[in-house]
Amino acid sequence: MFERTTSLAGCLDAGGRDGAEGGRRLRIGEVRGTSLVQVGTWTEVHAACAAALARVCGCDPPASPRVATDRDAHRLYRIAPDQWWIATHDEALPATLEREIGAAGGAVTVLSDARVRLAIDGVAAKALLSRLVPLDLRDAAFPVGAFAQTGVHHAPALLDRIGAARYDLYVLTTYAVSTWEWTLDQALPFGYDVVVTAAADRSRPMNSTTRDSR
Amino acid sequence: MLRIPCPHCGERDYTEFRYGGDASKPRPAHDERDVRAWHDHVFVFANPRGPHREYWQHVQGCRQWLILERDTATNTVGAARLARDGAGA
Amino acid sequence: MSRGPQRLAHGGRIDRDRPIRCDFEGRPLEGFAGDTLASAMLASGIAIVGRSFKYHRPRGLFAAGVEEPNALVTVGEGGRTTPNLPATTLELRAGLRARRQNGWPSVTIDLGAMNGWLAPLLSAGFYYKTFMGPRRGSWMTYEPFIRRAAGLGRAVHERDPDRYHARHAFTDVLVIGAGPAGLAAALAAAAAGAEVLLVEQDPALGGALLAAPVTGPLEHWRAQLEAAVRATPTIEVLTRTTAIGVYDGRTVALLERHDHAAPDPERGAARETVVTLRARAIVHATGAFERPLLFADNDRPGVMLASAARTYLNRYAVAPGRRALVATCTDAGWLTALDLAAAGTAVTIVEQRDEVAPPLADAARGAGIEMHTGATVARALGARAVAGALVEPLAGGRGRRIDCDLLCVSGGWSPALHLTSHTGRKPRYHPELDAFLPGDWAAGDFGAGALVGAYSPPAAYASGLAAGRAAAAFSGHARAGRTPPAPADVDEPTTFATALAPPRHGRGRTFVDLQNDVTLKDVALAHAEGYGAVEHLKRYTTLGMGTDQGKTSNVNAIAMLASLDRRGIGETGTTTFRPPYTPVSVGALAARNLGRHFRPIRRSPLERWHLANGATMIEAGPWLRPWFYAWAGADVGSAYLEEMRLVRGGVGICDVSSLGKIDVQGPDAAEFLNRVYVNGFAKLAVGRARYGVMLNDDASVLDDGTTARFSERRYFMTTTTAQAGEVMSWLEFLLQTAWPELRVHVVSVTDAWAGMSVAGPRAREALERALPGVDVSNEALPHMGVREVALDGIPLRVLRLSFSGELAYELYVPANHGIALWEHLLDRGAPLGIKPYGLEALASLRIEKGHVAGLELDHRNTLDDLGLGKLAAHDKSYVGRALRARPALQAEDRWSLVGLECLDAGARLRGGSILFAAGDAIAGHGRGYVTSVTFSTVLGRTIALGLYQGGLRHRGEEIVCAFPLKDETVRARIVSPVFVDPEGTRLHV
Questions:
Q1: Alpha carbons C843 and C835: distance in angstroms, whole number
Q2: Would you say C826 and C834 are in contact if contact means Cβ atoms under 8 Å apart?
Q3: Does residue C845 contact residue C642 with C-beta atoms inside 8 Å?
Q4: pLDDT top residue among C537 and A205
Q5: Which single residue of A107, A175, C124, C627 could bond C745 by disulfide (Cβ 3.0 to 4.6 Å)?
Q6: Searching chain A, which residue's CA lies closest to the CA of residue C750?
Q7: pLDDT of res. A206
Q8: Distance between CA B23 and CA C733 in Å, rounded?
């Protein structure tokens, strides 16, 4: 009965544009259907929560603050010394986590509607991102599998490099339209196509687990 | 621009952070009622020209509060540690 | 004999196969690819390039690069018009439209030259001395004329249609400057394994090497170095890119120029890009500027730097004159003389030194150059163009006239050390070089080439290799790699006189700063008047304050000042250098942060519905919120009253999604809230909410809000819209620095939930219709009760809270379901007449109830000031408790919250009005001010909240509200701030 919409509804209809030198070197748009959960722990329950996470998600939660781990539908990020994010296209996961992490003594907050997930792909992805975030995006500093929390146009965001020329950018829902319009303006010189993707299609292929490394 | 070495996220522009003031004075206990102790903590600062220990929060990052060593005369940045790992002097 | 510049048939780096025609003052100007506008002007015989700032003296080209003080032109049309660009830095291209400045009716015939006769009135600091009478205030009669005459070019008011971009970049080693030292540093750093970014402001690589003859060994060597750089994949080269500023953290601002590519903004191409580059190490290889010699009338057209003459000759194939006099104290001057002679110019050298090295003297003799040693120029002769010079022996004796149409001057080298001192490192004077060099180096900063006194090409190259290696090692790369060998047979003589002979005084003006028309006499005058410190001299005379920032004048001025003081030059010191190194357009600094993108906008998840249903939006901090709706009226003045009536008499619904919302969880959450709020929260029951106020450590009120308890360990805190970020950081600060032992997590969920308030006497009915499965009776959900339910599997939080004072409920649902719930409530509530109401009505309703909000919560007021003192607990500690007890915060005459009833019907009472007692004179700060105003539909009159000295002790008194900006006064009575339903009966139905 209650329809689920997105903040970007209506913003993605205008289609793409060729760039300054003709052609389109970007595919940008929204990824829909992502559930997002934040888990917080305290010293005495940290190990139990980590074990619960590993059990529920099928992979160890990362120890590194720079690299994500993933398994099937789920992707885990260590966003603070005592906090993780879990992004997934499995809609049942948040409830499972609330139960299991709660039992282990941790805190669970569902943020699925608090973020909009943007996709930034293409040969000009790095060039576009150099206009959006103040990060060192060179391969040595930001390899495939790396993520970083930073800001885009004055609003907090999380950048996730899921492929050589594929990035996810999580932005605050209330800033989503503003951030999207800013991104389009920065993308204009490169030319872009606008795409809407389902989270299930966005995931990495099955059985490809990223080894956690600092 | 100041580059701040966040212990969790790595070196970042200071624009991702929020300044939080002098970190070299221990905060009085929560149930401390002495007005002088709180007055000195809230209003009195050494303001040194030179090495300074200060709070910064990585608001556009991990949201952790850190204690940063910075030279106020040269803006040379030293080490940073998470405030939660041992606050105060 | 004919005079003036001429284009040579051969030589230069111009491409004679690509002629270019541009527009110069409405007429075609011709040149070639590789020309600058200046070289094309010179070749076309345009001798007067502008009129000077104050005296409107005719001026010619003086330099060939960014240090040019005279040839400032206006380029472009309409919104693209840009004044004050040095013609020496503009690449000649087909679409270029340029014109000279500061002459009327033209630069060639300029009435402004009359200013020359007014010179005695226009000396340094004249606006403090002349034009001061006859009466006090007379200055303002002269000021408009002087202001209109000031400046060189004119800016326009039209919008600039071009795009300017900004991007971020990171590298291991940044090399600034691609002369021999910079090229060497880049190659050495790359060979050691570092990633290198090499930036060069010129379109071509080579720096000073570009002034050498194209057929000589130096050019051959330069081409080899360039090829090596371009063949190295780890060296990124950016030409037409100026490093304009160095900042903390080895951050460098680079300005990339793209005009040569004729960028089309409609297709997204930019004219300029500002790059914020962070480097692990920086090599400064920025070279040095030549200084002029000073003598009377040294500003005549045809007087130019010797190195510039050499550049025009060898790079642009333009001989700047037919008969040259080279006045010099350096070997560099001799190189110019030799090259001019080789091109067929008749050359005379006037050398201050008694002797020069035999190879130079021999070569000059062999080239037929007339030589005078131990002599200098005392005065340039000629008016609209140089015609000759008066040359005098340094030892004394009569001078003689030497004819010329080109007077080249070479007085030494000033390293371009601006960037090295941007972060505060003061330059140091080296008497053996007669130059200021960079002072001590910060860690990670390195210098090479002419910048550090290594002037000759082999010396520059060697110092570049060393600096590049050191920079790479500093950035963590120390591989043993190979670099091209040092050049052979490419040395150039570089000795010079270290003690400049002082300028000869006599008739005529000796200019130190050409761009701002500052003479040696001005410097002496400033010194005599007490402005002898170098920073004072600069501001009093404006020396060094033009667009060239004194690049060719600073050191000469410092030397003059030092001699007046009888001090050393080093002791006199330089002024402080600040970014930008060369002028940068404001557009580039603004980049795309314009118009819609000026700042980010925060939007409610319901915004789409508001826009489609007649809402007029308003900015509230970063948010856009519905201000009022069309159903209620055509403008805010009428609409908000209708909306207020709806809420007081029926039921309305308001979007409150912008409120800060924080998820507070953990075993110690209750204790945490109890410490942070002034009132008790430890015993708040599950299923209940409580209004709370939190203080700063200094006892000023930080914020108010409501916190609800949904489970034993889970709380839902709301804050005001404006303070959401502040409160979040504050809670995190306390948890991480003050009470790390408390097991609490706080997470911002402002974005996660859409929030809507259903308010009015019929609110319960509206909820019953929309949420049939939920028991919202007064018993099941009393005032301040909360409930969490699932609606079709979607979590829904119902909080019975009221901001308006009516029966009301706040509903929270995940943001992406917000519109669905909102429409559902409107649909089911339609028979009750439910409609949306906006921010204006929301704010006005709370004023009627005396609820404090942002306008009262300004971080200066205490609990007692706001009438909330009774809220504070006595039996526990809370943040701010200790300092609340300060005597000043308890004083009886503090300004505290009152209600105000306007007594003058129909009068306009404005927020911010200053309050006075009935008998007070309307002057000074008064006894308080009005914080919030509205028309009360319940009382039928204008009411307000305010702060008044002594507060409600003056209840019932009539006072005056004054708004001096509009000369208005309004009478009002002090009443209780709770205007409507003071017993609160409506809340508990």
A1: 17
A2: yes
A3: no
A4: C537
A5: A107
A6: A114
A7: 32
A8: 12
Q: How far apart are CA A183 and CA A193, in angstroms?
A: 13
* Nearest beta carbon to residue C168 from set A4, A134, A153: A134
pLDDT at C122: 80
pLDDT at A210 over 80: no
B31-86 pLDDT, tens digit per residue, is: 999 999 999 999 999 999 999 999 999 999 999 999 999 999 989 999 999 999 87
**DSSP-based three-state secondary structure for C714:** strand
Chain A residues whose CB is inside 8 A of the B64 CB are 80-81
**Token pair in block for residue C100:** 């000279």
Which DSSP string corresponds to C370-410? Answer: EEEESEEEEEEE-SSS--EEEEEETTS---EEEE-SEEEEE
CA–CA separation, C145 vs C212, rounded Å? 47
The pLDDT tens digits for C860-919 are 999 999 999 999 999 999 999 999 999 999 999 999 999 999 999 889 999 999 999 999
CB contact under 8 A, B8 and A156: no
ipTM exceeds 0.95: yes
Angle at C234 between CA C233 and CA C239, to 5 degrees: 85
Distance separating alpha carbons of residues A63 and A77, to the nearest angstrom: 9
Question: What phi, psi does B25 have (nearest 5°)?
Answer: -105, 125
Helices and strands: H and E segment counts in chain B? 1, 6
Determine the pLDDT at residue A211.
Answer: 37
On whether the CB atoms of residues C546 and C69 are closer than 8 A, the answer is: yes
Query: How many angstroms away from the CA of A150 is the closest CA of chain B?
Result: 5
Among B9, B12, B84, the residue with its CB nearest the CB of A65 is: B9
Alpha-carbon span C575 to C597, nearest angstrom:
38
Beta bridge partners of A32: A198
Measured CA to CA in angstroms, residue C143 lies from C110, C132, C138, C770 at distances of 22, 10, 9, 71
Give CATH for domain A35-112.
3.30.70.1520
> Which of C50, C70, C51, C54 has the alpha carbon at shortest distance from C149?
C54
CB atoms inside a 10 Å sphere around CB C782: 13
User: Of residues C147 and B18, which shows the higher confidence score?
Assistant: B18
What does the block give as tokens for C708? 């609800």
- Among B6, B36, B40, B57, most C C-beta atoms within 10 A, so best to mutate, is B57
At residue C763's C-alpha, the angle toward residues C757 and C766, to 5°, is 100
Domain ranges of chain A: 9-33+114-201, 35-112
Domains parsed from chain B with CATH numbers: 3-85 (3.30.2270.10)
What radius of gyration, in Å, describes the C-alpha atoms of chain A? 17
- HEC string of C59-90 equals ECCCCCCCCCCCCEEEECCHHHCEEEEEHHHC
Q: Where are the alpha helices (DSSP H) in A30-169?
A: 46-57, 93-104, 125-129
- From residue A112, give the alpha-carbon distance in Å to each of A34, A85, C814: 7, 11, 8
Q: What single letter denotes the amino acid at residue C347?
A: V
CA torsion sign for C394, C396, C397, C398 is positive
CA C109 to chain centre: 39
Q: Which positions in chain A have a beta carbon within 8 angstroms of at least one beta carbon in chain B?
A: 65-66, 79-81, 134, 148-151, 156-157
**CB-based contact A156 B59, cutoff 8 Å:** yes
Q: Which of C663, C747, C816 sits opposite A4 (nearest CB)?
A: C816
**What tokens were used for C778?**
């007064």
For domain A9-33+114-201, say whether CATH 3.40.50.720 is its number.
Answer: no
CB atoms within 10 A of CB C540: 22
pLDDT of residue B71: 96
- Residues of chain C short of pLDDT 70, as ranges, are 1-2, 498-501, 504-506
